[in-house]
């Protein structure tokens, strides 16, 4: 059932090109290069009226939500707040008449996410769910559902569900941009074309030549006390996910920071040979990112940088660089996360741990 892979996690990592393709599937109008979401029951007019969005989720699904926030805000100019469900459910959220809540849950059974959904519904707030499980509690109780078509995810550490959630958020953001008229049709078509190329680019990140580099880096960090992930904007969102994945299955302590925050405290922890994974894929803040990296290097950090194909600058500032295939900066997170998943996987294997069933954790957290 692991299809020749030695763990479900590795199998699911390699299923990502297909999972992402299936999730986009019939939602792309091939001819017009626009998004169609026939499963939405609400009218376009109703959808266009939302002027505020909460995204509520836990763990990896919340990290997908952070990418969603940036793309929704960029493409539709609707303010989005991302909240951890266990916090959100006990808050007194400020809902307006035009607030939409998006809950994201692979399993559709996470207790805190479900509770947040129920709280919102009690306040007559419309809830749109992004979930991977048809017939799950979240799918049944939400007003609207967009399914991720990732197929069953068995490993405790979420991989293909995350990339499928991110892609669903891209589709939703583009659709919302069309109904709100915030992106012209040719720009939407351009993003759609880039989206269609994403599965092939994910596949290229999974090739042995790329995977072996993450395997080697993982072997080099298997005894370290701590690993740091740094990035800005979308790269920070992906850093959080890379860090969680590493902690979760390799039990190596790690932290993710917005790179500009380092000098407000964390830089004190950087000394000789501390591994730092620096994501620098976003052109608008690339120069700022490089200055942060130079500061880390000056303290002795050992830096694995992530840049976009064609860049020659980052290599001068770091010890080693992994290049992402070029795409639109807004779409890069779905590529950047792939080597980070592999890093966590190989670190776990290198330490002789049970990749699929990390200690203390359950696949579906149905209790508070
Ligand atoms: C981490 C992981 C968890 C889940 C979280 C939410 O790899 O899998 O952080 O993302 O427990 O689960 P769902 O998405 O099922 O609500």
Walk me through this protein's architecture:
Homodimer. Its EC number is 2.6.1.16. GO terms for molecular function: carbohydrate derivative binding; glutamine-fructose-6-phosphate transaminase (isomerizing) activity. It is an enzyme of class 2 (transferase). The model has no long low-confidence stretch (mean pLDDT 97). The radius of gyration is 20 Å and the shape is globular. The longest helix has 21 residues, at 160-180. The protein has a 5-stranded parallel β-sheet with strand order 4-3-5-6-7, with helices on both faces. It starts with 7 loop residues before the first helix and ends in an 18-residue tail after the last helix. β3 (52-57), α4 and β4 form a beta-alpha-beta unit. It has 368 residues and is α/β, with parallel strands linked by helices. It contains 14 helices and 12 strands. α2 (16-24) packs parallel to α8 and α8 (160-180) runs antiparallel to α9 (185-205). Fructose -6-phosphate binds at residues 58-61, 105-107, 110, 113, 157-158, 244, 248, 364-365.
Number of helices: 14
Strand order of the largest sheet: 4-3-5-6-7
Q: Ions, cofactors, ligands: which are bound?
A: fructose -6-phosphate
Residues in helix, % = 40-55%
Which percent range describes the beta-strand content? 15-25%
Name the overall outline.
Answer: globular
Radius of gyration: 20 Å
What is the string of helix and strand elements?
HHEEHEHEHEHEHEHHHEHEEHEHEH
| Strand tally | 12
Name the structural class: alpha/beta
The parts where pLDDT drops under 50 for at least 5 residues are none
Mean pLDDT: 97
How far apart the termini lie comes to 31 Å
Q: Largest beta sheet, briefly?
A: 5 strands, parallel
């Amino acid at each position: 059932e692991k299809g020749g892979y030695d763990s479900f996690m590795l199998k699911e990592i390699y299923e990502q090109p297909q999972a992402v393709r299936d999730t986009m599937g019939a939602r792309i109008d091939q001819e017009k290069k626009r998004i169609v979401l026939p499963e939405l029951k609400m009218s376009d007019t109703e959808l266009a009226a939302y002027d505020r969005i909460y995204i509520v989720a836990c763990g990896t699904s919340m990290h997908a939500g952070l990418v969603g926030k940036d793309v929704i805000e960029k493409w539709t100019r609707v303010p989005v707040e991302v909240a951890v469900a266990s916090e959100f459910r006990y808050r007194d959220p400020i809902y307006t008449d035009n607030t939409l809540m998006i809950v994201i849950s692979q399993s559709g059974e996470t207790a805190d996410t479900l509770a947040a959904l129920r709280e919102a519904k009690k306040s007559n707030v419309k809830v749109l769910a992004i979930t991977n499980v048809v017939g799950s509690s979240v799918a049944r109780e939400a007003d609207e559902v967009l399914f991720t078509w990732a197929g069953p995810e068995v490993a405790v550490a979420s991989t293909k569900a995350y990339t499928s959630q991110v892609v669903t958020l891209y589709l939703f953001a583009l659709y919302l941009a069309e109904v709100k008229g915030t992106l012209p049709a040719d720009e939407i078509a351009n993003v759609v074309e880039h989206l269609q190329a994403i599965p092939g680019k994910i596949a290229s990140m999974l090739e042995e030549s790329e995977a072996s580099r993450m395997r080697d880096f993982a072997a080099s960090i298997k005894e370290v006390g701590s690993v740091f992930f740094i990035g800005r904007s979308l790269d920070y969102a992906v850093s959080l996910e890379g860090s969680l994945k590493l902690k979760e299955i390799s039990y190596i302590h790690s932290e993710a920071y917005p790179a500009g925050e380092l000098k407000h405290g964390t830089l004190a922890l950087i000394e000789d040979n501390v591994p730092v994974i620096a994501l620098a894929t976003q052109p608008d803040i690339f120069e700022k990112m490089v200055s942060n990296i130079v500061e880390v290097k000056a303290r002795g950090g050992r830096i694995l940088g992530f840049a976009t194909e064609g860049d020659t600058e980052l290599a001068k500032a770091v010890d080693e660089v992994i290049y992402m295939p070029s795409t639109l900066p807004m779409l890069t997170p779905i590529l950047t996360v792939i080597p980070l998943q592999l890093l966590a996987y190989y670190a776990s294997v290198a330490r002789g741990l049970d990749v699929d069933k990390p200690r203390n954790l359950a696949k579906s957290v149905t209790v508070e």
